[in-house]
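User: Look at the shape:
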Amino acid sequence: MTERAYLYWLERYLKGRPLPKPGDHPESSINAFITKLAVQENISASTQNQALAALLFLYRQVLGVEVGDLGELIRAKKPIRMPVVMTPDEVRSVLSVMNGEMQLMASLLYGTGLRLNECISLRVQDIDFKRNTVIVRDGKGGKDRGTILPSTLLTPLQNHLKRVKAIHEADLKDGWGKVQLPTSLEKKYPNAASEWIWQWVFPQKRRWRDPKTKAEGRFHMDASILQRAVHEAIILAGITKQASCHTFRHSFATHLLENGYDIRTVQELLGHSDIRTTMVYTHVLNKGPGGVRSPLDSI
């Protein structure tokens, strides 16, 4: 898909232009093309970013030309969309029709504000029961952060980890029990892959087998499994909103603000680098349209 998209943008860019060659200084040409897309064609911000990425790939990776400062690009505006937020009662009703591991993971999404991929890629060492903290490693933007661990999830999560540890110990007895480690840690610490602290909190049910080495191990649960379970629970609960796993994160942020927590705290828990990203949740508080009394109700 990416390859076809890049070819499309390169074809458009090269139409009517001389073929680029090593030694070129393409900054003004790239600027003119990308700006035209925003000004004359009114494309979306994501499409404009894709076109720019294709051109940078052409010059840097194919031609070996280092692209300098592009100057003032006119960027396509990203539409501001209101996040879908469930009320506390709606969250409660969705969680009530779930059970087992799926309910625990959905509760973790709502109770911590984790993104879906952050949740499924948690490792045992990322859960700090003494400090009631969950550590997100290499989150969006490559940053680590900490968020709260709800006290109501302490016992369910500890019981869950006991079951996961039993599975891990059985894997070790079978001669396996290793997981993939981040970056180059596997070379630096060859035995770490089988240690308990590095295991996934939510491992997949079956071991995977490396076709080359024939070694077996477990990866974390596939995101689609939780997505499907949440989608079915939303339907069973009778929720008519376009909700998903990410809605729990939106609801987490909104409910914290409704409960009086300051926006800087919420920004830190969510891992937003820009306070303006967090500000979007202030638009769905009770102080907004939902908290205003219509004059019709006074007649």
Observations:
- The two ends are 57 Å apart (CA to CA).
- The chain has twelve helices and five strands.
- The first helix runs from residue 2 to 14.
